[in-house]
Amino acid sequence: MNVQQEIEKLFELKEHKMKLGLQPTFDALAKLGNPHKKLRFIHVTGTNGKGSTAAFIADTLQLAGYKVGLFTSPHLVKFNERMQVNRQHITDEELAPLIKQTRDTGVQLTFFEYATVMGVLHFLNKKVDYVVWEVGLGGMLDSTNVVDAEIAVLTNIGLDHTHILGDTVEKIARDKCGIIKKKSKVVTCADNAGLQWIKEKCKQGNELFIAPPYEGRIGLLGEFQRKNAGIAKKVCELLGVKKEIIEKGLATTKWPGRLEWIEKNILMDCGHNPAAIQATTPFVNSLPKKRLILVFGVLKDKDYKSMVDSLPKADIIILTKPKSERAISPAELPFKQEVIIKEEPKEAYEYAKSIAREGDLIFIVGSCYLAGNIKEILVR
Fold it and tell me: What is the DSSP string of 203-269?
């Protein structure tokens, strides 16, 4: 089996209309002996900060001596990033039998349902102690919600995917609260916009922990990450991890594409909705620089108008088009100042570098797809 060709076939499934619902995943797992029932899950949802929070938790638990599975999406460069054990990506050799096992169930699955089932199988094969399990989209009907997590984590909730999850914070919060099961402990942050609905959901008998921002040293940039680190700290405390291990874990966590310096004067972030842009802008504004060169590309189903309004004030703006069928044409973006359009991300990146002078800062933002496109250039 040529694994990369098989993965390309899985990607072709993304071209079909997305279907939210749990039954196909339940059916496939049932045919495989319900492997998800043999694992311990920490289920992570929210609008922003899911991946960072999951990374904080996974790295800290690993430091505590546990074998930790980490399931996240989307990937930046390679599908294998989505399934990690002790932060080691699944190998092509490990993927091959999982694709076959999943296909052999005979259940018609979407791309993400395939990934979900394969993730469960991989973590069971690896005999992990815990799985840090990030939702793909929403919560209630996301295919990851086939598990009964002992801890349900809800990062900050805001408006994103409104065409699918609903156009108010209440609708989105209620959907994301779907990951809270009867026996789940629930952890969230103090100023979560969805807190009242999380509290309401927890009246079914769940123990709710509201974590304050973490004040110690953290491995990820940006003050907003302190909320995510605070959540991770509480999760690890609930699992019995010692204070000094938690402090070291949070201080050393790495997570690609999140306010990541890819060169000494080039900063990149996956921020892809207004709340994410609003969170990163103060950090970018605080950095010393002669000029800010902004490279921006976004998907058309995002609230790109609000994103544009929230971006840091740039001296030069370069617009590009992430490599996704959902990407918006740069010419359609509502910028009021003069812009430079370079449709290809590689061309935009190289042009930004070519015009940067000593002391200038290049900031790349707008989409996980764009971050992945740039990462792909760097690893070649």
Answer: GGT-EEEEEPPP-S--SS-STTHHHHHHHHHHHHHHTT--HHHHHHHHHH---TTSSEEEETTEEE-
Dihedral of the CA atoms 51, 54, 55, 58 (nearest 10)? -160
What is the amino acid identity at position 346?
A: K
CA pair distance 251, 229, nearest whole angstrom: 9
Q: Please, what is the angle between helix 92-103 and helix 3-12, to 10°?
A: 50
3-state secondary structure at position 302: coil
Say yes or no: domain 3-252 is CATH 3.40.1190.10.
Answer: yes
pLDDT in tens, 88-133: 999 999 999 999 999 999 999 999 999 999 999 999 999 999 999 9
- Quick one: which of 332, 329, 335, 290 has its CA closest to 310? 335
Report the top-level CATH class of 260-379.
alpha beta
Single pTM value for the model: 0.93
| Amino acid present at 165 | L
